[in-house]
Specification:
single chain, 345 residues, mainly alpha, Farnesyl Diphosphate Synthase, 13 helices, globular, disordered C terminus, transmembrane helix, UbiA_sf, Prenyltransferase
Amino acid sequence: MSTKTIQKTETIVYQPPTTGLVSWLPASWVPYAELMRLDRPGGFWALYVPCLFGVGYATSVSPVQPSPALIADRTVTMLLCCLLARGAACTWNDAVDKEFDKKVARCRVRPIARGAVAPFQAHVWATFQTAAIVLILLRLPAACMFYFLGIVLLSAIYPFSKRVTYYPQFVLGSVFSVTFLASVRSLDVDPLSKDTLAPSLCFFTANTIWTMIYDTIYAHQDVADDVHVGVKSMAVKFHDSTKLLTSFLAFFMTAFLALTGVLAGLGPLYYVSAVGGSAVSLAATIALVDLADARSCGWWFSWGFLFVGGSILNGLVAESVCRSVGWAMEPGMNVMNASWIHMDL
């Protein structure tokens, strides 16, 4: 990798929050809210949106439509779980990475790195959040606990993956994709059953690849400091060929989304929005982002995520709505067949 084109990141000085939810909290609570990243909701959406995918997917493949009340209950329950899970994971990550964070401009103002919270206090805080998640999960089918354990394990190894591999984005993507499976299971649909295993794994793979794409773009904000301190990432490994790599990944992501639709027998609205919309959004993001500009990377990370995630979610919701009102694929058919739709009245 050539380091000639890597620009140093600007120094950031900590400023107490003056706007938003965190600014309303007592000063002694602020560092703990910052450990949860309550002031930076982007990562929460990265974890929660796959849960929304799971709701749309479950209602699209289940032979029995879940009730609106159950869907609403699971959507809120998973929101609370994701809020706490993201908080616990970030707290753990900051405790493990405290020495690295002190050397990275964008991260040295984090609570542990700047000395506002001791590592022991952070571990207690992470444990408390994890325990709260377990209590919430008791409301869900018992099988959801299995997926939660997978999320905990992958989240625990994520900070260390940056030390031993250039692919921590794959580990992070796997965390987010397991939440998709957990969300599906929460609606009493088994994503790993004989009938749903293949499309579920295809969507799992597509979501993992998507995370690898947008988190690699995000990681370009810190690539200069990461090279200096020895943190590994796909942005570091493929710095000079990131656009080529992400284009390659985008192709396979959309291919797996399309294969999900074929295997699950989803209708044209899914293909137009989830497959076509995400393909266009990814192409625009990859073409227009300036990887040498941290602000551009941050902007396209946020808005690219919104465009792609919104396209996929719209496709799944459209399919779910069609099925709920009586529109559905003929049994055993997919969009490769000539006649695809009927209406039960």
